[in-house]
Amino acid sequence: MTRIATFGQAQILLQDVLRNEGRVFDGQRKITSGIEHKDYKGFAIDVTTLAGAKDLKASAESFLHDNDQVMRRLDLYDLNLKALRDVAQGLRDDVLAAVNGNTGVALRQKIDDYWQSAVSLLDSRDNGRYIFSGTLTDESPVLSTANTPAGLAAVANDITTTPTDVFGNNNVARQARIDDALTLTYGAVASDVSDEIAEGLRRLMRFDDNTETFGFATGGPFAQPMTDDQRNFLIGEIDRLNAMIDDVDQAHSTNGVHQRTVEDSQIRLGDNVTFITTFIADIEDADIGVAVSRMQQDQLALDASFRMLGQLARITLLDFI
Q1: What is the DSSP string of 145-176?
Q2: What is the pTM of this model?
Q3: Could you tell me the mean pLDDT of each successive run of 10 residues in the chain, 321 residues long?
């Protein structure tokens, strides 16, 4: 009993088995990965479009990440500028209360405390970098010679005209590219947002110390009741103190505009990422329902191929006798 010569037919059936195995494997890959083809060559004419879309998506996602850092810094500016405004308004309100009550009791202590609070806010840092120092992020924006009440009171010049007597920041603003078309210049520096505060406090300190009387006959420590010169001096300072609040409000408002600009950019970039992701999926993603159906058909074909190959291997001369 010798086997019938079936070599040629066996080779054909073996090739069929291998083809069906490849189809089943490719179907399993599509189902598990969700990708229609394992490499770019499978996408034929869509390769350039797909690669370009992925580059656009990567760029938008990079902007989204970087803008989160910019927004965090803007939020930090917002927080500190709000607190700095509270300092300015608190000082104005205390001066008004002293005028209305004709008493300067504890006013000097409050003035000193306000400067210490302002210095603390201006010394705020982000990851160890001073945020109000311009690009001099490793240096405090307030000079060490002026960061105490005594140091500020020793300054003889008008700070609004000679801010370098008190502030050590530069005026180079931060910049960030928040999308392909827009570079945002943002941030605030100490000499811009607090020179009026420092000058208002300096004048009050020097008048209280009787170091400078600003055209009045005498200064001296604010007490109860105040002298006419003391009361008239404080009344004359109210417009300056109101301007001090307006100065901080302007910086705060500008920061708010920058926050809105970044927020709008983030919304726009997020929409772009969503659209591009859908666009890429339309090209790249496999239809899982279709892939499962085809794999089941390919699996049936593979089983049939194995059966045919097995039957061929069992054929003997007895089958023809």
Answers
A1: TTSSHHHHHT--S-TTT-GGGTB------EEE
A2: 0.76
A3: 51 62 58 55 62 88 95 96 97 96 95 98 95 95 97 97 97 91 94 96 97 92 93 96 95 96 95 88 62 63 59 52 54
